[in-house]
Sequence to fold (548 residues):
Amino acid sequence: MSKTIIYTVRVEFGDCDPARIVWFPNFFRWIDAASRHFFIECGVPPWHETEKTTGLIGTPLVDTQASFLRTASYGDVLDIHVSIGEWRNKSFVQRYRILRGDDEIMRCDEVRIFAAAKEGGGIRALPVPGDIRALCS
Amino acid sequence: MSKTIIYTVRVEFGDCDPARIVWFPNFFRWIDAASRHFFIECGVPPWHETEKTTGLIGTPLVDTQASFLRTASYGDVLDIHVSIGEWRNKSFVQRYRILRGDDEIMRCDEVRIFAAAKEGGGIRALPVPGDIRALCS
Amino acid sequence: MSKTIIYTVRVEFGDCDPARIVWFPNFFRWIDAASRHFFIECGVPPWHETEKTTGLIGTPLVDTQASFLRTASYGDVLDIHVSIGEWRNKSFVQRYRILRGDDEIMRCDEVRIFAAAKEGGGIRALPVPGDIRALCS
Amino acid sequence: MSKTIIYTVRVEFGDCDPARIVWFPNFFRWIDAASRHFFIECGVPPWHETEKTTGLIGTPLVDTQASFLRTASYGDVLDIHVSIGEWRNKSFVQRYRILRGDDEIMRCDEVRIFAAAKEGGGIRALPVPGDIRALCS
Fold:
């Protein structure tokens, strides 16, 4: 149904908070990088190129749903497994499972859109580009 | 049912990405600050004090569900309205609405626990402390 | 010689690392916000406006020299005192003193330029705009 | 004189600002990770282990001096070359050169200390541990 691409992250000291565990916004930082990495690995050009050709500037989030199952700390190596859970007309579900070895640390489903800049500022949703969908399936 | 506390954020240049809008992990950064600020404003001592008295080191996330309704950019001032949506035995729902003036930018429901350090590393959930619940209602 | 503008920061839990003190890159995050805030308070338009009028997109760093004098932790309120230490032809020195009450936490001197986008990507330095210099003095 | 260890970083979309270049505090984030990585690669145990044995909790910054020579953007791969420039009694100079291929992007010299927690909060400097110095030379 969808390719699965793995993005690997080393947890650093500065990613952790005074409770000595990963400060959770950092998970979303890594997930955003894993999202972009997924498209690059599938052969989609970087957004600064697509901006010039089709106006596509990125894939901003619409909705996110995440579960934090285990804590992680610095020294850990995390594998973020990324796939597309569902294609819709003007959005798609990008799915993440973050593993440390066999332990599942976090699970996340995101609804994202393909966005173009809007006249006068802000962004607007583009229809899912067929060529990108084909590359990622 | 619950107090509502407002935490105000100025969006900075560095909070925005090449699409010129807030890079979404920053919303979670602010939400985490707003979460802690809520407890402080309700009269709960900071976690480095509760750690010494009751072992409570913070309120890590279990689940989060967020919707991104409008974009924001630098120069914007955002008001994060924080309340407790529900108290459970060993967790609670903390609710956020981020507004720019009357415009709703983001909405988020989090399930969090009250955590103590566990022997040998990691964390464990404490029952919801009655005094904290009273202070926040 | 130069105006001094104060930018105030609340230190948050997530700004601190497992040593329970502010993780130092966060000081630079705040300093960058204080830098931009200085210009706004002096009456300089935001960069997304100057980009359209004069091409000026921001004030990227060329050099920085910082001393960390005391640690800070969450709950602290920090006042960042910002001024221009020196105007040069194509750059300027922006000066920061971070105080917690009377205690000096950090001191920083930055060399920054006024930058425009360069054809084909990257940035180039503009001469120091006379009107901006006048507004900040 | 000193080992040189390379820490490699992929620049991500979210590391860049509306000027489409790396937002500079992120360089310090990577440098801090590269600093810790240097000690790990040299065979020094992680700080959460040394905290239990010798009280050493990390190597906080005292001074930093950085020059930004070229911009970087997302898609770039950066190699951070780390070495010890000088050992002093209670501090050391850690040296960084960030390269993209042959292009030098940033150069940084830091003065850091080996720190232990101080009674009642805060940190204090330890003499440079002889075994760590030997491992890194």
